[in-house]
Design a protein that fits this description.
The chain has 767 residues and is an alpha/beta fold. The chain contains 26 helices and 15 strands. The strands form 3 sheets. An 11-stranded mixed beta sheet has the order 3-4-5-6-7-15-10-14-11-13-12, sandwiched between helices. The chain has a two-stranded antiparallel ribbon with strand order 1-2. Strands 8-9 form a two-stranded parallel ribbon. Helix 6 packs antiparallel against helix 13, helix 8 packs across helix 13 and helix 14 packs across helix 16. The longest helix has 42 residues.
Amino acid sequence: MFKQDIDLCVCVVVSMCFRTADDSAKVGTVVVSRMKMGEIEDGEVDHFTTDMHQKCTLVYESSHGSVNDKDNGPIMNAVFKNAVCKVYRFQTVDSKWMLVREQMAECTLSFSIPKQLIALYIQEDTCRIQELKDLGELSPHWDNLRKDVISRYDQIIKEYQDTLAELEKLTGPLFKPSCSKGQKYLEFIPINLHTQRMRVMCPRKTDSFYDVVTVGAPAAHSQGFKNGGLQKLLSKYESEKKSTAYQCIYYPPEQTAKAREILCVVSQLQPHISALADQLLQTAQQSSSQPLRDVLKSLEEKTEQFVHALKDELVKSALLALHAARPGYVSKCQSSAQSSPARESPVHSDSIPHHKEYDEEEWDRVWVSVAKSLNCVIALVDKLQEQDNNNQESAPSHTLADVITSHKLPVATVVWWDELAVLVQSLKKCVAEVAERARRSVSFVLLQEAACSTAQGLQLQQRRDAVFSQALAALACGFAMRLYAGLEDKGFLRQLHAVGLVAQFESLLSTYSEEIGMLEDMEVGISDLHRVTFRITEAASEEAVSLQPTVSGRRDHYTVEVPLPHHAFQALPEELREGKPLRVLPVLFNVGINEQQTIAERFGDISLQERINQKNFEILEGYYKSLTDTVPSECLPCFQTQTDIKELLDTLGQNVVTKKRKNVEILWLAGMICRRMNGIRLTSCKSAKDRTSMSVTLEQCSLLRDEHQLNKDYFVRALDCMRREGCRIENVQKNIKCRKYAFNMLQLMAFPKYYRPPEGTYGKVDS
């Protein structure tokens, strides 16, 4: 009955189970497989059962081990663990057979990135407390507000320290299962974060692979969604802040953001300028004048950046407000304060009262003194170099170092060097004074923000921290996977340092009930990823611990460093080896597909989804313009389908504004565009388990059909096979200890056609 002239795969499988030394527990399984492509001889047919041939084209599988191929080099194995692999054979339109390997893995970044972020949150809030204390003596009103704010920060720090301590105790799987999404101590950990790679091997063709990161929607499940998510809560919070601002000075969000930016610039540039000033003195003793000129140029650039940042009017007005908060100022105005009502109108930053004894021009004179000190240094170095040139004309053996350091030279020359040292010290002193005043002024602005906050403000900060932590872990995972895959792709590396990458988050959340709050959380969390840049570094060794990405920075800006082994790092373009910050542009597209979305579309409100899709389409379109203006088309990957990116973008733009129920074509188009632009693909639903599995398997089969000529008669069979026996059903098993997707018949009737699993693979379960 099997006498057919077709190609099949001969597969020999050896499975080995490993147990602990005391034989008390099973720790893993390694499956060693050998496959042979070719025509099946008559005598070999009985090795394949009728059931396998008709129901599924799965060839072999391995669990909790690694597959022996180039996907699993030392870099990959350092970050991606506990792989599950499935291999299939599918027929192409020309009656050939392709091998398709699916590999799903956990990621060490699921826990390491959140733990690093929590430590950074603690460090930043501890510094904020010290900055508030450094404001000096304040009037009783402001001092009480300061004590209250410090108390709130202490509370956050204590909670974060407890959370970090609990996370440090954890051992076991490297992912948070969906059933744990509501646990408070795990709120910073992304839900069910996994990577999935599909590698396609066709006869006489180069292997192709397609990656996707699957993760539960970044959301604060432990805090609930009764009052909505971050987008709604933040809007309400800003309105309430204005109404309670009678206690303090109200600064709008853009000004408090500016204050954080200035604080960050001051913290970074002051030590940098001080170090360059010291280096200038040291370089003056070297044997060549060119290094001196180079250091002076760097010092000039950094000092100009410093001065430019502090010229902002916010600093000047904040200094005035801080002066007005001193005890002496309040005592002189007590009579007017006593006549005022107990509850006043909000005081805005543009209506701060001026005090006649405060010299408003003093601040201008202080920061201008920095520029003057720098100019004096430049002038003296020019003078020294001029003498160096004159000496070289008369005696070529004399250098600038000789002019400065020789005991045989005129006393006046030695005086000039001493004068340079005095000027350098003066510059450092001026910079330190300006930095201290600026730090106090913007710290006072941030005190206003915190003082105007209610207890809700504290909860919102914690909610935003947790959501951002989940989003960053997923993005860092996707960036690492995309970087490792593209290390030998010169076009990709050029694009990476020239314009950065796009990271496309696909969401399947509905706009009804609690999932609205999840989507509002997710929108803010992904938007906050704009504050993140990446940098590639050289690892200290090839040990797994040295290859782990790390995070640094504070809430207004974070940098993720991804280390590479020496040989891989040295092969990178110079721009990447020099540590250039790399930009990743996050975009979010959402289309709800379940029965709750049916209710939202017929009786509810889908404006949130429409706004998100329209806004992110514009961001994606802007990235495409930058990409085409900067990088030649040869740098982008080649696809079999001939539709170009511009045409796909036009179609996506039309779909975004079209009123159509469950328009999943938006997701398909966004995914195609992302892949064609070398982007990072991420797919989410509530727990990245059921709807996500339907989406990932559909995308994989669509890629096989469009790019690898999958026989149309095999499309549905391949789809059912991946959903029944593939990595995604293993993901369900890992999460809820059950091999069934959490759908019932009523829900499936509401799903778009190709998002429905095969019979026997679904049933209502607790998720």
